[in-house]
Amino acid sequence: MTENASVSWSAVSVLVVDDEPGMRAILKKALSKQFAQVDVAGSIEEAEELRKRCHFDLLIVDINLPGRSGIEWHEAFDPQTRRSDVIFMTGYADLETAIKALRAGASDFILKPFNLDQMMQSVQRCIERRLVERQNFALQRDVERSYPVDIIGDAHSTLSMKKLIGQIAPSQAAVLVEGESGTGKELVARALHQLSKRSGPFVPLNCGAIAPDLLESELFGHVSGAFTGAKKGREGLFRVANNGTLFLDEIGEMPLSMQSSLLRALEQKSIRPVGAEREVQVDVRIVAATNRNLKEEVAEGRFRRDLYYRLNVLTIELPALRERLDDIPALAHHFTQQLAKDLGSKPVNWTHEDISAMQAYDWPGNIRELRNMMERCLLLGKPPADYWRELAGEPPVRTEGLSDPVTNPVEAIISADGHENHRPCRCQEDDEKSFCYPSDWTLKDVEKAHIMQVVDSHAGNKSAAARQLGVARKTLERKFKEWADEALTSTEQ
Fold first, then answer.
1. Which residue ranges does UniProt annotate as crossing the membrane (predicted)?
2. Is 290 in a helix, a strand, or coil?
3. Pair 285, 174: CB distance under 8 Å
């Protein structure tokens, strides 16, 4: 496998379903060297739980599973979710089973025991075929211009948004884009312009970044001598965007006095430059955006009702990143490639733990925060886990580069309370990670060790650990505070 191929595969996800722990461990170890996300399951029930949380590009499934065959499980997928390639494997093969597997849509059929190279070659063929299909689909999508290729992600909410953009882009009606800060409102506006086939340019303006007394001149222009300092005339952005699209970002920040002038320009399709006697006809499509609730702004008298209805002919509501967590692997790959090129550094293949940590975070700053975090990681050579620990005022997990091993995040508490026996003994070095505990431990000791182990498995990300434990993060924080207080009391005594 070439270096370029491994880089392009960094966003590929694989799920192995086999009831043999040894087989799961072997395949996970081999596949994890090539792919950022490799999950394993010992039963169909475990596999279904994983599929609810993440889309997998490739499934490697044993046919003979407890309770239900792998073929029957795959045949039960509905057409919308049957988007994964599948490799079936079995130790009890006959011609009828092989035919049935191929009819079920198998990409390959492998007999056990098999050589590991044989499996890796089959995986490579599947992934390369899938990447070619993706590239062909992207090219076809460009030609058909059904929706913009710059919007990354395949989560359900993202696909719905892309479809809506493709539907309303050809219209000349005004569009209001609503969503939290950092969700990509300007990207959506550019996509609408790109697909509108309008001949003029795309012109953006942040209404909140322009002083109120200059906003009218910025939009409509002015003639020479219109006001003190206006030695030369100037075309406003309406004329610059003629036959194109004018994107008014943060429209909720526009002063009321300016809102009436904007409304008239939209209704009359003409503008009057400051100081001019005649109006100028313009053909401009307006796309406005806001992170405010304009309905509430209207009710409070801070935004004109008639302008709101004029702008709100068509509406696109952008989902927050926490509502499209399945897009994070694709976004991480996209930003890594983009930023590495800009920064002149090597792209990073994020580990499964890194991706899981990203998907467990709430992202109040949305996609903008994700990009900024990844840029910070690349510049400082630190893993994503350190980003959230720094926000929480905690010491970093890794002290050197992204490739350095992760320090146990609960080491400080174990050392502080002096109870080394709070670390469970690993009795089985396999994927199941079975542990045993001393017979003299109390239930509290076991609870503490279990919680620490789960937090450790999530690289110190308490939100992800709390989700796995089925408790609120506040509950987890309270537990850690109690242990810290106990350790302090023990030290003082």
1. none
2. strand
3. yes
Instruction: Give the start-end residues of each E strand in 34-174.
Output: 37-41, 58-62, 85-90, 108-111
- The owner of tokens 């109120």 is 212
User: If you search the block for the tokens 């479809």, which residue do you land on?
Assistant: 163
Q: What is the CA radius of gyration of the chain?
A: 28
- Give bridge partners of residue 87 from the DSSP assignment: 60, 108
Distance between CA atoms of 12 and 311, rounded to whole angstroms? 41
Q: Where are the alpha helices (DSSP H) in 424-471?
A: 443-457, 462-469
Q: Cα(161)–Cα(374) distance, rounded to whole angstroms?
A: 25
Tens of pLDDT, residue by residue over 413-440, are: 334 444 444 444 544 444 444 445 555 5
417 torsion bin: left (phi>0), alpha (psi -120 to 50), beta (else): alpha
How far is 239 from 222, CA to CA, in rounded Å?
Answer: 11
Q: pLDDT-derived band of residue 360, with 50, 70 and 90 as boundaries? A: confident
Three-state DSSP at 6 gives: helix
Tens digit of pLDDT for each residue in 305-335? 999 999 999 999 999 999 999 899 889 888 8
Is 156-226+234-319 the same fold as 9-141?
A: yes
Domain 9-141 class, CATH top level = alpha beta
Q: Which of 14-28, 72-86, 239-253, 328-342 has the lowest mean pLDDT?
A: 72-86
Q: Which residue has the tokens 């050579």?
A: 381
| Residue 89: alpha-carbon gap to chain centroid | 32
Pick among 1.10.10.60, 3.40.630.30, 1.20.1540.10, 3.40.190.10: CATH of 443-490:
1.10.10.60
Q: Write down the CATH number for the domain with range 156-226+234-319.
A: 3.40.50.300
477-to-76, 330, 423, 461, 465 alpha-carbon distances in Å: 42, 31, 19, 12, 11
| Domain residue extents for the chain | 9-141, 156-226+234-319, 322-391, 443-490
